[in-house]
């Protein structure tokens, strides 16, 4: 029963909200763990559970970090809200369950110097190096999610307007301007490298591999780690760290938070406000080094 309900729930989320595959997979994985717990505890009907039952389920994950624990609770709450809306049940046993307290989690980012070192790591004289440089430049110039980057089709790039059209979460489109370094890197890649990589194969994707397919998230993740090592960056790095760097550097240089929100494609300004906390350390350093009464 529960597995069929999970399928219906995830299908409904996809139809109504167009959620990204990664988000749907996260919901499915959380609810699949819930299904395992139900079977283990011989509870076949998820709509006959009490609040105490669900408290026991949540407590069975008490070794998890608060963020992971809260995500599982959020998935459960969303599932039961859907079930009530669909009249599968008249009671929401998660209604009085509260999220675990968690401290402010500042995003991992890079300094401007580290970003410059990373962007200097690829060798643009090789076809793959030119491609990788174009990807890194575009990722940092536009603050893209890695899924948005690898999913870009050729027609998303407008070199005349120095902008790209991105389809983000919920199939929402946004137009993002790109700077001169990114435009030059993309132009060179398209003119000198892309066809060499494809070697006669056809593809509608912007960033391609020797197999003629689009670059994958996993493939680019490996590349950025290799370039970070080459650049002497020892801190943890992922494509998302460059997105954080894009946002935090904008805020550091005085960009309006609403503008940063639009560029990142955040639905809620609250999600973007985390970068003001990242910028505080930078502003404190400037104050201490510049103000005559700060020392």
Feature tags:
mainly alpha; hpI Integrase, Chain A; 295 residues; 13 helices; DNA polymerase, domain 1
Helix and strand topology:
Layout: H1 2-17, H2 21-40, H3 51-59, H4 66-85, H5 112-119, H6 127-142, H7 146-150, E1 157-158, E2 163-167, E3 173-177, H8 180-198, H9 217-230, H10 239-252, H11 257-264, H12 269-272, H13 274-290
Total beta strands = 3
Uncertain spans: none
Q: Overall mean pLDDT score?
A: 85
Query: For the CA atoms, what is the radius of gyration?
Result: 23 Å
Proportion of strand residues: under 5%
How many independent structural domains? Answer: 2
What sequence of helices (H) and strands (E) makes up the elements? HHHHHHHEEEHHHHHH
Distance from N terminus to C terminus (CA atoms, Å) equals 67 Å
Query: What is the class of the largest domain in the CATH system?
Result: Mainly Alpha
Named at the architecture level, the CATH assignment of the largest domain is: Orthogonal Bundle
Strand order of the largest sheet: 1-2-3
What's the helix count? Answer: 13
Helix fraction by DSSP (H/I, runs of at least 4): 55-70%
- Major sheet details: 3 strands, antiparallel
* Shape, principal axes of CA atoms: globular
What is the CATH topology descriptor of the largest domain? hpI Integrase, Chain A
At the fourth level of CATH, the homologous superfamily of the largest domain is: Intergrase catalytic core
Q: Helix/strand-derived class?
A: mainly alpha
